[in-house]
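Crash report, auto-generated. Payload:
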Amino acid sequence: MSLRAYVITRILMTIPMILILLTLVFLVMRVLPGNPVIAIVGMKASPQYIKKLEHQLGLDKPLWLQYVDYLGNLLRGDLGRSMIWGKRPVIQEIMDHFPATLELTIGGFLVSVILGLATGMVAGIRSGGKLDASMRIYSITVYSLFIPLLGMMLQLVFGVWLHLLPVGGRIDPGLEPPAITGLYVLDSLLALKLDSLTSALAHLVLPSFTLGLVLSGIYTRLVRSSLMEVLGQDFIRACKARGLPGRAILFRHALKNALIPILTMMGLQFALLLAGAVLTETTFSWPGMGTFLVERITYRDFTTIQGSIVFYALFVALVSLVVDLVYAYVDPRIRY
Amino acid sequence: MLLEVDDLHVHYFTKRGVVRAVEGVSFNLDEAEILGIVGESGSGKSTLGLAIMNLVPSPGRIVSGSIRLNGKEITRMSEKELRRIRGKEVAMVFQDPMTSLDPLMRIGDQIVETILAHEDMTKEEAKRRAMELLEEVGISRDRFNDYPHQLSGGMRQRVMIAMAVSLNPKLIIADEPTTALDVIVQDQIMDLFTELRDEHGVAIILISHDLALELEVSDRIGVMYAGWLMELSKAEDLMKRPLNPYARELLKAIPNVELEDQKLISIPGSPPDLHSPPPGCRFHPRCPDAKPVCSREEPPTKVVDGRLVKCWLYG
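Recovered output after restart:
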């Protein structure tokens, strides 16, 4: 199989996967206890009024017809309208908040991968030594940190005491770049607004670090064990016997092979980061999906919740597709 | 003299204690000579091969002795000097061609990489050279862009050999190069080695557990047991009249296909645990000719009719 054939098959395979996901979300939302209409209008509403609303929302139709409507609307990119907040389209509400979360997630992801790779490599190369032991202590320590606590400590040190970095929000007021992607860092770059860029980056440092530091511990462990395993393999000894320079052996051969199992983990971690961003967002008053969803769950805004779940599911499916494609690009054994 | 190994000791410092994997091994090797090293698993033959490249894996280390390649002392070289010698003056072919190539890199690029690590050449020149090398070992140059998993075991071993000869080394150490391959492919690979010797004058140290194979291709054969070099003789001398009882028993154990109803002969017992080898001669618990002195004192290495033998029978 060529790389192109693999890419096409893998993309086609995503379709049934997404269909199963969507069906699950649909069923779960119907099976969950609690009538959404009563949630909107309250327990004291008259049965006639409830009937009328149910009809408006299409909840009196047979289940299969609701399912068909649901899929049809999704195909048109319609996630429905919010049940409370001025009946705004859910997709718009998500688009207002998701870029902030995505920006934070990417920041956290980069921090966790860079820290995790660096510490894991040191531990793997010096396995059994003192550096290895300290890296292992590092990984277990950061992994057991509680995000809000770490966030507040960083806010205290870098914001309150040292006045180095802002402690909340995404950007200084008035500096928002023109909305193109919704990612402030990218938008400021595209609009060539340097002051926006610095402000957006400065605001991103502490939340990304909080999120990334905690999750870097997993990479430390994974990279360490994977690198140790590869370094013990025959082809590494064969590389040495051919007189290749140590740096070439480590980076061109050992690390590349060691990163293959880590790659899968990165995809899974990215999804975990999206979810984990909630705590970080609350700590840093970050206007993302986390704070938004928590609020809507309290108000039982069913359409928004369902829409967000669908959106997340699609996004995670996309990420895992990308990971698999990168995987196939790096590892020739997958493609054939 | 191409290679002189003198009183070499290699120990592994494990948690359970010191393993004396190679003890007091000495031999010389001339250009264009094929030296066979035979022995059972754990006899120290692979460690000996790695020691010649100063590549003994931790916790192992060359404890004493000297290894001179073209008169240069390998045991005292820095990592940098060693890197220049490895691949360039002495190359190695490993046992398992399935795992000895980087699975993520095209085979051609792995050869090019090896050439460029030592030679001042452009990428294009190295690529042309790599293609020639592939053809020389019997692989079509269109396979240059193949990944290791697209090749059969025999082809991969050919790639390993192409890589080993890419820098025209004077010496190739082949550690069980055909053990992972079937008999037909084994023959082809062996032909390739003898060709290299005949046409390019490369000396080869052929490490194997297969005495019959060694007798066929080697000029001289060293027999190792539990870290000791028990005998070092010309192949035909060893075949006709082995001096050391261990070598003699090994020869007896080669099955003869021409005889019918022949039982497989084996040497009773098993090799010692090198954490605590037996006192005296390491082979004495299994030796049919053992005398009282054998269990007390280590036998000396003597020269008998121009052959090296370590045994009290000649002490």
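Post-recovery validation: The mean pLDDT of chain B is 92.
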